[in-house]
Structure formats: structure tokens, C-alpha cells
């Protein structure tokens, strides 16, 4: 394929997942790859990335084809139609209003619409959680978008300025949020072609994207949340418990997972029991801190609402009891609020003991 005919892909989010995503697209060679990089922008412009990858080995000085400091800059300076807008940032609807997914991608979507009103923008949300596509349906003309779900299993973390450490193999499951949307399904399958690197990563089409998202919530709603609350990697969260790993598994992880299974069942989605053991075992033997734990330790807001808030709201609507998930949600809301206060997003008046939203 000539350079002119290659689709343009822009990756938003330059953490451990985003950088490996952009590198995998570049390694494939079927697209022109752009990245939006904020905190490490000047460093990467000058030095590129150092990537220590279990999939690709050690890469020094890698850069995507184009680098932008914001989506607004990309929309203004690129002069191209971005066929794929790949979002790998954390989905935090309760964060600053300008950091919601809809506001982040708005410049690109609007620029694409002006450039070619006959062509849809394919937005791929490579993010955790359930119901995250609803924000985009509410904020945009959904008929102008291909809304694609990306569910990624990968152990990849940014450990320093421009330095990525990938310790878990990249497995990506891609599918349309709406299983009846033919354009979105075709766009998802095309993206798989652009992302697949034989013998390096595993990329599959997922026709049941909502089922897959509920399934991944078994891990995220139980293990990701617990480690964030206690600030421990998974093996320590298991071994530091009352009776070794048994009590953490039996008193926290497994009950939370069973509540997710029960909520999904009210939507007619059956999550097989075997996946409880699968997710209980997936990270117990590696020194791995899940994403929410890493975010809390860095003082960054967590994906609390899409991982716990949205499932619990569905549970409440469908009369499902969620004692374990609700306890985790209540405690993590306190942690999230503490982080918001540190960032000036919340203000607490110590004289009146009242909470005020920061403007």
C-alpha cells in the first residue's frame, strides 16, 4: 500500500497502553501513526521512547510518524482525515469537564466532519468499564461515528519519562459497541488488520463486546479496585490477608466477581463460572500493580465510575444486591475525593465542615 493510501490513526494517551498501541500499529506498517503526548511531549520529540517489551524486545528512540501536544493541535495542523481515533486514556467522567472523552476527541471529530462529511470517524475506546460509549452517543451525532470497543489484556506501565515497561503479552479484542452496526463492524475488522503482528501480539474480533466488557469487569471491579484501596500489588494483597491468600480471595475478590456475574445476568448476559478462577489466577504469581492502584499511588484520578459506579447503578435499577461492590465503591469514592481535593477539584471548608465544588 502506498503512503498516500494508508489510513491515518491517532492514538490519544501516552501511558503504558497507549505507547505499546502506537508502536504495534507502527510495527505493522499499514497505517500512518500519530500520537497525542502531553507530559512527555518535549522529551519524546527530542529522544523518542525507550520500550522494554515482552512482545517486541528492547526498542530505543522510537517515535511515531507524527506527534502532537493536544487533539486541538492535531486537528489544526494535521490537514488529514483521521480514520481511527484510538483512545487509551483513562475514562474518568467525574474528573475535570475538559478531560472527558467527548471533550478530548471533539476537535478531531469536528475537524473530520468539516473535511469529509460523507466519511465516518472510527472511535476506538481501549478503556476499562461498562457503558462508556453512552457519553459519545449523547454528545455527538452517533450516525457520524463508528463506535468500537477495544478490550486489552496487557501489563504495560510508564516507569519514567519516555520509558515504557511491558511485562504482559498484548491481547486485544475489538468489536462494535452496537453488534447490529455493519459499518462499525467493518471498521473494527479493518483495525484488526492494522494492529495485528503475527507472533508478537494477539488480536481478535469480538462480536459480543458487551459480554466481553462484563467479563473483564470480573477482574477490574474486584482485583483492580481492591489493590487501589490498599496500595498493594496482587501477590501482596493475597499474602498479607488474614489467613494468607484464602481470605482475600474468599472474602473480597470472589464475592465481588459473583456480584458482577449477577448484574450481567439481569441483562441476559451469562458470564461462565470458570472465569472466576481464571481472573483469580491471572496475576497472582507476578509482581503486578493494576492500573487503579498505579493511578492512586501517582495521585491521579481513577476509573472509578466506569468500573464500579456504572455496574452498581445497573444493579440498583435491576434490584441486584451488591454488598461487596458497594463497600469497595464507597471506600474508593473517599479515596477519589481525596485525590480531587489535592488537585483543587473539590474544596472543603474546615470552618463550616462543608464541601464545595471548585469552579
From TrEMBL:
Top-level division of the source organism's lineage: Eukaryota
Pfam families: ApbA (PF02558), ApbA_C (PF08546)
Domain Ketopantoate reductase N-terminal, first and last residues per copy: 9-178
UniProt cross-references to InterPro entries, sorted A to Z: 6-PGluconate_DH-like_C_sf, 6PGD_dom2, KPA_reductase, KPR-Related, KPR_N, NAD(P)-bd_dom_sf
GO cellular component, one term: cytoplasm
Domain Ketopantoate reductase C-terminal: start-end pairs: 210-335
PANTHER family membership: 2-DEHYDROPANTOATE 2-REDUCTASE-RELATED, PROBABLE 2-DEHYDROPANTOATE 2-REDUCTASE
Name assigned to this protein: 2-dehydropantoate 2-reductase
Organism this protein belongs to: Tetrapisispora phaffii (strain ATCC 24235 / CBS 4417 / NBRC 1672 / NRRL Y-8282 / UCD 70-5)
Gene: TPHA0J01620
Amino acid at each position: 500500500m502506498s503512503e498516500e493510501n494508508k489510513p491515518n490513526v491517532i492514538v490519544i494517551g501516552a501511558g503504558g497502553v497507549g505507547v505499546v498501541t502506537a508502536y504495534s500499529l507502527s510495527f505493522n506498517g499499514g497505517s500512518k501513526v500519530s500520537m497525542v503526548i502531553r507530559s512527555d511531549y518535549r522529551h519524546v520529540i527530542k529522544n523518542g521512547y525507550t520500550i522494554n517489551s515482552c512482545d517486541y524486545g528492547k526498542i530505543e528512540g522510537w517515535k511515531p510518524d507524527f506527534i502532537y501536544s493536544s487533539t486541538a493541535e492535531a486537528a489544526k495542523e494535521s490537514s488529514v482525515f483521521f480514520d481511527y481515533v484510538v483512545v487509551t486514556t483513562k475514562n474518568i467522567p467525574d474528573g475535570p469537564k475538559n478531560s472527558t472523552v467527548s471533550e478530548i476527541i471533539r476537535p478531531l471529530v469536528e475537524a473530520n466532519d468539516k473535511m469529509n462529511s460523507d466519511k465516518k470517524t472510527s472511535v476506538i475506546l481501549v478503556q476499562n468499564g461498562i457503558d462508556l460509549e453512552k457519553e459519545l452517543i449523547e454528545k455527538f451525532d452517533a450516525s457520524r461515528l463508528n463506535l468500537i470497543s477495544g478490550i486489552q489484556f496487557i501489563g504495560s506501565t510508564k516507569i519514567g519519562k519516555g520509558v515504557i515497561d511491558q511485562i504482559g503479552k498484548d491481547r486485544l479484542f475489538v468489536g462494535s459497541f452496537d453488534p447490529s452496526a455493519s459499518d462499525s463492524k467493518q471498521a473494527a475488522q479493518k483495525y484488526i488488520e492494522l494492529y495485528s503482528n503475527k507472533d508478537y501480539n494477539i488480536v481478535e474480533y469480538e462480536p459480543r463486546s458487551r459480554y466481553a466488557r462484563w467479563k473483564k469487569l470480573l477482574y477490574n471491579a474486584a482485583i483492580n479496585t481492591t489493590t487501589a484501596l490498599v496500595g498493594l500489588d496482587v501477590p501482596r494483597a493475597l499474602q498479607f490477608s488474614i489467613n494468607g491468600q484464602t481470605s482475600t480471595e474468599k472474602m473480597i475478590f470472589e464475592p465481588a466477581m459473583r456480584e458482577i456475574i449477577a448484574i450481567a445476568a439481569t441483562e441476559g448476559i451469562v458470564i461462565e463460572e470458570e472465569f472466576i478462577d481464571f481472573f483469580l489466577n491471572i496475576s497472582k504469581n507476578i509482581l503486578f500493580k493494576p492500573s487503579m492502584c498505579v493511578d492512586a499511588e501517582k495521585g491521579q484520578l481513577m476509573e472509578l465510575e466506569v468500573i464500579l459506579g456504572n455496574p452498581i447503578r445497573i444493579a440498583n435499577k435491576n434490584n441486584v444486591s451488591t454488598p461487596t461492590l458497594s463497600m469497595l465503591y464507597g471506600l474508593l469514592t473517599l479515596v477519589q475525593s481525596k485525590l480531587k481535593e489535592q488537585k483543587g477539584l473539590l474544596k472543603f471548608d474546615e470552618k463550616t465542615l462543608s464541601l464545595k465544588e471548585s469552579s
